[in-house]
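Lest this sound abstract, we let one protein speak, letters for residues, whole numbers for local backbone shapes, and leave readers to judge:
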Amino acid sequence: MFTYRLHLEDGSDAGEATYAQMIQPGEEIIAGSNERFRVVDVVPFEEEDESPFVGLLHVEAAKSPV
């Protein structure tokens, strides 16, 4: 399992989320209370960090389907 911190592009915290696979830029994810986000960037954490997170996801609100 891969746990990430989520931050919006303005720098505000959007919580954390855990996924079964590594997340890549451009993917749409669901986090929080079923909120859809598009991943803008992934910043991996170094293995020697003692963080429970594998990285930081910079996200933006996903556009609704038309």
